[in-house]
Amino acid sequence: xxxxxxxxxxxxxxxxxxxxxxxxxxxxxxxxxxxxxxxxxxxxxxxxxxxxxxxxxxxxxxxxxxxxxxxxxxxxxxxxxxxxxxxxxxxxxxxxxxxxxxxxxxxxxxxxxxxxxxxxxxxxxxxxxxxxxxxxxxxxxxxxxxxxxxxxxxxxxxxxxxxxxxxxxxxxxxxxxxxxxxxxxxxxxxxxxxxxxxxxxxxxxxxxxxxxxxxxxxxxxxxxxxxxxxxxxxxxxxxxxxxxxxxxxxxxxxxxxxxxxxxxxxxxxxxxxxxxxxxxxxxxxxxxxxxxxxxxxxxxxxxxxxxxxxxxxxxxxxxxxxxxxxxxxxxxxxxxxxxxxxxxxxxxxxxxxxxxxxxxxxxxxxxxxxxxxxxxxxxxxxxxxxxxxxxxxxxxxxxxxxxxxxxxxxxxxxxxxxxxxxxxxxxxxxxxxxxxxxxxxxxxxxxxxxxxxxxxxxxxxxxxxxxxxxxxxxxxxxxxxxxxxxxxxxxxxxxxxxxxxxxxxxxxxxxxxxxxxxxxxxxxxxxxxxxxxxxxxxxxxxxxxxxxxxxxxxxxxxxxxxxxxxxxxxxxxxxx
Amino acid sequence: xxxxxxxxxxxxxxxxxxxxxxxxxxxxxxxxxxxxxxxxxxxxxxxxxxxxxxxxxxxxxxxxxxxxxxxxxxxxxxxxxxxxxxxxxxxxxxxxxxxxxxxxxxxxxxxxxxxxxxxxxxxxxxxxxxxxxxxxxxxxxxxxxxxxxxxxxxxxxxxxxxxxxxxxxxxxxxxxxxxxxxxxxxxxxxxxxxxxxxxxxxxxxxxxxxxxxxxxxxxxxxxxxxxxxxxxxxxxxxxxxxxxxxxxxxxxxxxxxxxxxxxxxxxxxxxxxxxxxxxxxxxxxxxxxxxxxxxxxxxxxxxxxxxxxxxxxxxxxxxxxxxxxxxxxxxxxxxxxxxxxxxxxxxxxxxxxxxxxxxxxxxxxxxxxxxxxxxxxxxxx
Amino acid sequence: xxxxxxxxxxxxxxxxxxxxxxxxxxxxxxxxxxxxxxxxxxxxxxxxxxxxxxxxxxxxxxxxxxxxxxxxxxxxxxxxxxxxxxxxxxxxxxxxxxxxxxxxxxxxxxxxxxxxxxxxxxxxxxxxxxxxxxxxxxxxxxxxxxxxxxxxxxxxxxxxxxxxxxxxxxxxxxxxxxxxxxxxxxxxxxxxxxxxxxxxxxxxxxxxxxxxxxxxxxxxxxxxxxxxxxxxxxxxxxxxxxxxxxxxxxxxxxxxxxxxxxxxxxxxxxxxxxxxxxxxxxxxxxxxxxxxxxxxxxxxxxxxxxxxxxxxxxxxxxxxxxxxxxxxxxxxxxxxxxxxxxxxxxxxxxxxxxxxxxxxxxxxxxxxxxxxxxxxxxxxxxxxxxxxxxxxxxxxxxxxxxxxxxxxxxxxxxxxxxxxxxxxxxxxxxxxxxxxxxxxxxxxxxxxxxxxxxxxxxxxxxxxxxxxxxxxxxxxxxxxxxxxxxxxxxxxxxxxxxxxxxxxxxxxxxxxxxxxxxxxxxxxxxxxxxxxxxxxxxxxxxxxxxxxxxxxxxxxxxxxxxxxxxxxxxxxxxxxxxxxxxxxxxxxxxxxxxxxxxxxxx
Amino acid sequence: xxxxxxxxxxxxxxxxxxxxxxxxxxxxxxxxxxxxxxxxxxxxxxxxxxxxxxxxxxxxxxxxxxxxxxxxxxxxxxxxxxxxxxxxxxxxxxxxxxxxxxxxxxxxxxxxxxxxxxxxxxxxxxxxxxxxxxxxxxxxxxxx
Lengths: 576, 381, 602, 144
Prior knowledge:
heterotetramer, B: 2 domains, 17 helices, elongated, C: alpha/beta, Rossmann fold, 25% strand, globular
């Protein structure tokens, strides 16, 4: 290796640094450090002349390492890295000493601050001496996509990418597209036709040349990593005798849109679902609406219809979470009952009315105006449904501890609609395992960041969209599906997948195969090679947090750019 | 014990003017805005709630509607335009019909046609009766004295008769009000001492309407007070001093001054109210039930014909005065005979009574709480 | 096929935008249409009676046409079933859903009706032609949605021009301390994104700039951006603060929402991107005196990068797509007199409290009440004084301020319940022993982890009172609050030291101008109208124009981010293929009719 | 002259280092005794870093990471949180006073908090006096 030739540049930042820190003394001290070929101050290192000075020095003096003592690396590290690159030096041969934000701006005593600046510069010099040239690498990015689930989210993601030219494998377990939305008649709050919306999407999917629609199919296996997955898809044979078809396809990304299932209302005994004939679930009522059969099991038009919210949601016994869409659906039913059975009385038994979206509050107000009787109950204080007596003019009576009046109220009902909440699908854990993501305690898939990255997961290349991440209404599912599509489009646009030069590596010679690191990685980037009995990091998935590095008992894992040697050098430096 | 809800009641109340109550989503804004709202009488939201759910029996027993003076601040601030003020007004109409055992009140409130027909019928009968009586008994050119077209004493006799009928009707209705609000609830016994202790409230509220003054805007109170005082003055004058009122040609200012003032008061406030209801100047004038108009028109006719016959009489135009007088009586009789017991004017009795009852009930509740030491500890604050 | 067309209006939206008479006669001339009846506003449709009509006319398809015909569909479906016809053959011609409530509403309504009569979903038929698309994208607004959209597109290697009105990107999120429901620090997750935007080679960041003019057509828009005179050279400024130190003019800080002051030479906040100062011309002595006075900052600037005489500049951009991410403003609480905001010193709005409780805010995150300060120059004023201010012993939080209220904004602002709960948490956490009250109507904790968060706040000891406060007033020098505690069935009337108003969201000022410039529809409340509420929540009737985040309707951060990323899908798709859709708004009736007819086979 | 301890600070890049920068941009003054070393995540902080720092003459070590739940890498800070008691126990076995090593959560907006922590820690370590570890370790090494 050629001799170290370190250039140290101390920025005055006008007087921002120089007013407190004695820059000349810092220079002087730095110039005596091992390997330092040149040490110079400048008024503003970040300015063009400042950067040009570095470039000129590299060219003139053959510098191979650069230390800039200036502001926070969060500000200008990219600036100076560019300067190095321009001069033909690997950009990672740069180290910055933060002598502004963490020195001159926070200390008043010049002498003390100067000592600290000297130490920080020394740490940087010692560290940079141990830097290694790093290269950003890239892996191939297959533009094709696997979409699991053919509901509204899955179809949306598929269409966006198919339009952009990718080949899509849309895998749906059922024999038709549309998911749960296919069971719905009208959507809230504008009472638009769900069928029209689905017909539009389904027609496009079926007719799209880039979409390979695989109904009656399931993904059996997924291997590989971002940009390079191999998916094995099994398609059930149409007739019983033929064997299932199994195909393996190459895809670059996977969007999981497996949606939800409805809560099983019979689990709440208070409601007598399954025992009382005219206690039905929202989906059963939806079917009545689609077929024009809003009537009791006895074939009569119900005079009193009651709607009970939060069935299986927002309680301690079943699910603590809110299912997000049921309130609006319930309000929709209030209107629909009044339309299908003019003169019917509708009671709506709720906890809090979640009418939060665009047009929702207005819809709620309209429901009030058509004289829906709203009754409020407290969480976990379930209304109780019983058969009415013969003298009553109704089939059932619902007893509610009504919070807005403080009274115990009995509501007449001929039909009771239970607003069943959303639940993760029974096999969510299998799906999570299949694509290597995780679910929360309720079985909803966990996103990479609840706020800033609601579509990615901790496994790079696997995205989630729609209600499989958490209960969601149609616009929010569509938005999330398109967000996943955008992320994938962005990566395809570049052709290759750029991998940051900073990531962790396993030295196979040192690895003992203890697998301690395997479970530690939040991005499941560490694989265990059973044959070699060694762990291995998929650099494309590594985000360089270094958790495994610190944990490895054999010291076999090195964090590029944050190696033990580099940090040890820094420790020595700051303590000088 | 669960109370059975009746989703149909809200439809019944629509005919009494409560069109918007279903819009209420119970934010509690109105109750906290209301100057009359005070534990244990929280209004108007609770009444809105009972009405939405159709808790008929509970509503019958509520005094809250009578504690509201309709300053309208609740309606103004209501985020859902549910018109709590108007709902309370409608509940007062509905309660009036409930207190009235004859069922006439209900007919009037639910159909303005029936009410109008009843008024016209009574007016016609009255007119016919007096005209025939006058023609057979006296001289139409003569206004006062024994040979008068309508002799004072006879009329006065009729007045008293009417007054007694009125009183009986009112008293039975008031008794029913007591039954609904206090008597029926066996769980809460009100000791006799409480009745006596608070008895002073009845005349006080009747005469001063002091609670009305709690409204932020004082003008409605002043107007209402003038109207009420004028009316009562007139009533007293007619009941006790009608002879002197009618005696002419000399003017007895000790009586006539009151009479004139009352007439001016009646006419002035009525015209103000009519104008207000047309232009919707006040919150409580924004919605007008047919019975409101009926009542105002009757009042104007009564006051107008009253003053006109006085002027005609004093001007010596006895015949014209006599005819006007018959018209006057034709409006007075339906007003007193129909409006007071069966319609809007019954609140003259119900409102002070309600305040009296409210205090008694609250006092009884306080005594009970003291006895059981079961004072509910405040949860917050 | 025998079709019956029934016009039924629900009275929603701009009902005068369509000519029903003309639509009815159009419907009568459509093939197979046998019956056309106008049933008027909010008709009572009796299924039994209608079943008789269906039988009598032997209709086998019904079309309900109107502003929101879904309101009447169940009755017609029932009637079809009773008449023994296929209940699926009830088709909706929804004028509002497909943009017939504005512009050439009647023609659009006719095309919607034609599609319904043919049994073809309108969005399938009403697809405009494609057109060539320029690769650049304009994003208006540098809040979290603008940032997210910019990064999604720029990370794909496509050019973005991000135009932000203020001196820094970051928007409202940069003002927040914590974000619900995870309570992670807003700065921790936002500032790295801001820095990425500032350093991204594909993002042309134009702060302190406004869109002045837009011309062109989908795929080829020409934008004039007014770069307001910042008077500080962004590339040279090192954020040393000398200009602010020497500046003699103090004004209230917009970033701190008026609870602190800044100089006329200032940086909105320390982590601003670009990390450069600016001179506020409105308050600058030099600018206001036409150069006669002051100018000291320019003289003292060590980098000599202040040009106080700088003038506005117009920059022209050519882009293919436009993303509107203009966000929101908050409701003006002074409009609600009963809360006495602006009169009582310790009644604060949500954004004021965000700054107060923010660790990098004026009090360093200490929650204190205001102190009275009297000075000759400025008279009596109430300020947050870290040394003298005392922490409040009780804090009341009022929900739905300006929201869900016919007298103000009828809509729900979607985020206030959750941020109010967050405030309650911050109060109980920072001020142990202080009482905290939440006055709410409905607790709208609907998102992932929200309900659990609400449960946690209640468990922490916050008094959650169902009932919106009616009044905040002063009594004998003490602030009082009066409301109804509905669940406990009593009136509450008690003293508090601080009141927080959970003000609702309104469209950002200036968004109406943008809508006009682009010929974009807004709803009654001024939020930009999306193309299709369910199916296309980020597109608009105008080709190449997208909406992201709260400018479409109030939205929380996760939903905003998802939507902003979703917008990028539309943009990237068009850039990838080089073709984008024209405006649906420009589609002619005949085009839609033709396409719908060709699609009938499905 | 008062004793000026030397403290090494390991700060995570996303929250704490940014918070320390904010203290700077907000010009919050604090003791100059802490010298900061940036790591990507507090989970990267190997116990040997702490030992190395103490060995090389540090009188104290400050570790800062994101608040629980805020980790850029989801739960790196929890890993540090779990390692910390073990580290403390180890140090206690070496006879190192507990105040010499400290773990704190500092967010990107907590510039003031960072300054307060630095000042407080400096005072505490100053009160403890110079660390004897360096000499102890040196003796130990020599004996082996």
